[in-house]
Amino acid sequence: MEKKIIVDEESSGLRLDKFLVTKIPDLSRTKINSLILAGSVSLDGRIKKPSFLLKTGQLIQVNFSQGSKTLKPYKITVKIIYEDQDIIIVDKPTGLVVHPPQEGYYKTLVNALMYLGKDLAVVNPLRPGVVHRLDKETSGVMVLAKNQSSYKNLVEQFKGRKVKKEYIACVWGEIKKEKFNIDLPLGRDQANRLKMRVSFTKSKTAYTRVEVTKHLKGSTCLCLKPLTGRMHQLRVHLKFLGYPIAGDKKYGVKDDCKQLLLHARVLGFLHPKTNQPLEFTSPVPERFNNFIQRHDSGTGPTLKT
């Protein structure tokens, strides 16, 4: 797979590596430099150094074929909710990783879509089409981009907090408030860089709206609306308040739930080409109904399907 870019007047005089960072935002400067030094980037057919200064009208070709060879099809059933020439909406099952964390790993959603012959925007060779992510344990509705323009548009919508996101969760503990907001900044856990924690230094703002949907015995069902998109935001926010999500092996407590009770039920955004508002939903998984039957106190409505 290859990406071709023409240097515009405003970019004349920029370094090659800095220019590509602006044109391929999903790749870090380190990764771009690696591609250049590996000979995967050519300028008017010639290999140049990362520091090479560009001129208007030059043709840059970025070859992702080396990286894309590591992505092999993976046969697994994936429910496609909607698809057109620009986007694919999927209902991701729990236990499925969205994209390969490193070369050689292939049991992911992206590899499953490759098996189905779907075209995905090639911005990062290991993450084609990936605009946002759900944790491996989290199920629910996701959007992937099929071309570069759709990818850029959707990324901007997520960054601009213009996307509607609604999750359902079952947590341990009986929450009395019917509605409340969580405003707690999150940062990397210094003891374990793969985890996040509430932190007031070296952190980013994180906002979550919470609404109780059903009271259970020793637990509560919630509707969660994250206004920001920090890694593990919902799981960390709720654990910090003393209401860990049931089945959360990373942040929760030891319980008998084999699967995480967190599900992305609603996703809404503007179509990247037509600008028309779209909203997609994913049914409540059976694992939630099973949990409710075991802990039902008989108060509150049943979860929406």
Question: How are the secondary structure elements laid out?
Answer:
Blueprint: E1 2-6, H1 16-23, H2 29-37, E2 41-43, E3 46-47, E4 59-63, H3 65-68, E5 79-83, E6 87-92, H4 109-115, E7 139-145, H5 148-159, E8 164-172, E9 179-183, E10 186-189, E11 192-198, E12 207-216, E13 219-226, H6 233-240, E14 262-270, E15 277-281, H7 286-295, E16 296-299
Parallel strand pairs: 7-14
Antiparallel strand pairs: 1-4, 2-3, 2-4, 5-6, 6-7, 8-13, 8-14, 9-12, 10-11, 12-13, 12-16, 14-15
Helix pairs in contact: 1-2
List keywords for this structure.
single chain, ten-stranded mixed beta sheet, 305 residues, alpha+beta, elongated, Structural Genomics Hypothetical 15.5 Kd Protein In mrcA-pckA Intergenic Region, Chain A, four-stranded antiparallel beta sheet, Pseudouridine synthase, 3 domains
Summarize the structure.
By secondary structure, the chain is α+β, with helices and mostly antiparallel strands. 19% of the residues lie in helices and 31% in strands.
Describe it.
It is a single chain. The protein has 305 residues and is α+β, with helices and mostly antiparallel strands. The protein folds into 3 domains: 62 residues, RNA-binding S4 domain (Structural Genomics Hypothetical 15.5 Kd Protein In mrcA-pckA Intergenic Region, Chain A), CATH 3.10.290.10; 81 residues, Pseudouridine synthase, CATH 3.30.2350; 136 residues, Pseudouridine synthase, CATH 3.30.2350.10. It is 19% helix and 31% strand. The strands form 3 sheets. Strands 5, 6, 7, 8, 9, 12, 13, 14, 15 and 16 form a 10-stranded mixed beta sheet that branches. α1 packs across α2. It is elongated and about 70 Å long. The two termini are 40 Å apart. The relative contact order is 0.13. The mean pLDDT is 90.
